């Protein structure tokens, strides 16, 4: 008679502790050795618990979290919360001060970052002290106290705050580059919104005369193709700066860049299309000159060439219909006249359309000068405009120094240098770069890239952090 022993008895006879035996060894000869992994719900629950624990214990994760919320509110849902009914005004800000989703996100970011790194946040405001002093001086002495002007003052103040947030948060985000990933996600979600509109299910509808003006052009979750194009340009800068240490990361970076290209082409924005192409070509040239050329850049060049071919039909159509850019020449003359009459104080923040429109019907209809330097000089005075753009110029010069003097291997300075001609082109051919959440996005990215370029320079022995 044969007696069959169970696995525990066999182990006991061999003087082996069952607790130290692998599970598959004790499962018997008929076991397949397979086991089910945790369910999706279990994984999400574990990830949520880990996130909450990280937010509790790690200050950097708290900063990164509010940074992600700020990017989402600017890039996907810049929704007005109050008041519900306002007079439409075509300025850098609304005609009356309004509370937006990104306003709350900015306040939350300042509180969280201020609690953790109060001194660094204060230092990030130093480049803006002259401009803030200039605004305070003329707000007291020269500009009117209308709601329109107050709205402009709030807008420019938020620009300085967001720049400081980006510059300060970069230190906490240096390891994970979460801001870059967040803007990459924004690009994909905007492309999803474009595709939904193409198949007849738009996630945002545009009504009135503006709907006829943008017919056939992609708007995504924004209200105008030009706005979407500028947003995607910022996403393209971040996509090029994404970490590319693994094959998966490289695929994400290049496919995100492809999504940006496709979205820009569908907006039919001539200036942003030229800006994106110039950014790519300059980056490739920099990589070649500095000896960092890799085969992967053939993929980038191929995507760029495909973008150009796809865009040729609408480029021909738009240049045929509007070869000289509309009434830009007339608008430039109006701006020069305003600056000549108000060289020191300007007409006041957010007041260009109201003041210049009193003598020019086209401007009064809601069409300001399509040049951010002239627009800022007309509103803030010549010196005020120079002070406004000074921190952005500092970010650019720091990146240039890091690329050509330090010869850094860090991507952020090289991408910023590559983007400079495109940014100048966008700013010199339109005014939307100073408007609403898009100026705030520009300031956030500029502050972030400035801090990363400065860190590279300091790490190489040039100056102090």
From TrEMBL:
The primary site where this protein sits is: membrane
Q: Where in the cell is it found?
A: Membrane
On whether Transcription is a keyword of this UniProt record, the answer is no
InterPro entries, per database record: O-antigen_ligase-rel_domated, WaaL-like
Record's keyword terms, sorted: Ligase, Membrane, Transmembrane, Transmembrane helix
Transmembrane ranges, per UniProt, are: 63-81, 87-113, 125-143, 149-166, 178-203, 223-242, 251-266, 272-290, 297-316, 380-404, 411-429, 435-451
Q: Name one GO molecular function term.
A: ligase activity
Q: Name one Pfam family in it.
A: Wzy_C
What is the protein's given name?
O-antigen ligase
**Domain of life (superkingdom):** Bacteria
Q: What topology does it adopt in the membrane?
A: Multi-pass membrane protein
Carries keyword Iron-sulfur? no
> Boundaries of each O-antigen ligase-related domain copy?
259-388
